[in-house]
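User: I want to check something. If I give you two sequences, will you return the structure for each one separately, not as a complex?

Assistant: Yes, each is folded on its own. Here is the first sequence with its structure:
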Amino acid sequence: MKDNANPNDSDEKPDFLSEALDGFIVEADQEFEAEDKEARLVVEKLVRSATSSLEGFAPSDAKVLLAFWQRNPETWKWATDDFYSRQCVSEIPKVVRRFLKLSPVLVGRIPSVEVSVYLREATQCFLHGFFQGSTALSRAAMEAGINELLSRQLGAVPSIDLVEKLRQLERFKLLDSHTAREAHEVRKAGGNVLHRSPAPEKLGFEILVKARRVLMKLYAA
């Protein structure tokens, strides 16, 4: 929507579907708040508390709230649909922004299903803001690709850690020094998010891009 205009301020159509959906939500909220704004805020707080308790950790007294929703399953279903619909629509611009930063991973040899799934899920995690998951899966995709290449070249994957596998690829001239350096950065970052600290968006993007570049080298021909 141009100039951040409110959808109710003019008859001009929104530029994007996400803006149309957001405008629909705004109009629905205005109608509801005209009836009982306070009631909506209370329901929203209850839903947010319940969903948070199911997505992660929660204090033990959350079971009282969950029991209330379980006694009202149809209302709970409606409330969670409303909650996640709003959340997803609000995230669409960020997903699109992240997606437009990506470049295709062009290869000469198609990777295995395992490698493809890891990379696709690493990318999806990044798009939707799950940067820890993206970083860990970027490493998993890269290592799966390395294992596939070593198996193809040696007949089996050697029982050595990822550091030694990368050294073997350099020794066999299967990876140049620059690509090997990026592979080590992916390896380290993947280990850090599992054992040390979470990854911010900037690091998540850098590691995903580096993993994709390494995979392009591994499957170049």
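And separately, the second sequence with its own structure:
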Amino acid sequence: MLLAVLEQRAGVGVARADVFASVAGGVRVTEAGVDLAVALGVAGARLGAAVDGRTVALGELGLGGEIRQVPQAPRRLAEAARLGFDRALVPPSTPAVAGIEVVPVADLGAALAAGLRPVASPRAVA
């Protein structure tokens, strides 16, 4: 579903790509709170861009590309701040949390614009 939304709502061409996502430690992810983070990772890989290592993304991705709230967002953001993250891409309804900059993103396009930065291409080795 995430790939279809990336293709249709954000214009990121992934329909003809083989996409594999892996979580550190081999944990199975079964909740929608990681939708935005996974979509940013896949889009970044396809577009040659990356999310800053001190940014966290939290939100469910809807079929229309909208970013939806997830349960216990303030608690999750407080834990992210404790772990050293200083910026969070979140749905607009997310309240402010001490220690972390909350960046509201209403849809996938806004999240890609706020979260992805171009990565310099590696130099060819002779």
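Because they were folded independently, the notes below concern the second chain alone. The CA atoms of residues 54 and 83 lie 10 Å apart. DSSP finds four helices and seven strands in the chain.
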